[in-house]
Please model this.
Amino acid sequence: MSPIILLSLLLQIACCVHVVRTGRPLYWIFIILVFSYLAVLIYFIAEVLPGLRNNPAARRGLRQVRDQIDPQRRKRQADQRLRVSDTVDNRRHLGDEHLARGEYAEAAAQFESAMRGIHREDPELMLGLAKAQYGLGQAAKAKQTLDALIAANPSFRSHEGHLLYARTVEDSGDIDAALHEYDALVGGYPGEEARLRYALLLKRKGRDGDAVVQLRNILDRAETSPRYYQQAQRAWIDAARKELRLLEPAG
Model:
């Protein structure tokens, strides 16, 4: 069978299945089967594409595809918005884009520029600045920024911010204080990074048994989690499995 005919059949079957599963008018099946590629294209534009635009998961997928094709797109758009309107939000968005690309000096400059007047103690800006400082290897400065954030915004809560704070405390050499921060964090952290870092610090402290408990917890959670969660946390899960293999024989 010709590849062109085979592709046409596959597309027609897929569209017909979509018609039935989504409750579209059944006349679409007749149109799709009779007019082949043209009908598939029309059906996609008329029925499938609007649904993708209204589906959050589909929108995320489309954004990821666009970002892979044009990695600088989001940063370019943020830069254009800032040039049109120099606002705090636009500086924050551009700072976030720099952070995502590991451009920490540029990110710090954007956050610092936005921290003026009534926004001097804005928690989101202060957290962004602390991330940039930590990325630049300035852990002590990042901790100072986070301490100032906590003092100025005692009701502010951020899992990312708490993890960053625990890491700055760990880097300061105060292992017991860092263990306290990780212990307070892991219960509600939406991911496995905090648990893995906690386990590694427990191991560093010589508490191998407690480290094993945390590592097993990571793997147990992974086994009962949806596939998308396992994929998103793959690096931390694999690291936990590797560390557990190193620790269990000694236990």
Observations:
- DSSP finds 14 helices and no strands in the chain.
- The chain has three domains: 17-67, 86-185, 210-251.
- The mean pLDDT is 89.
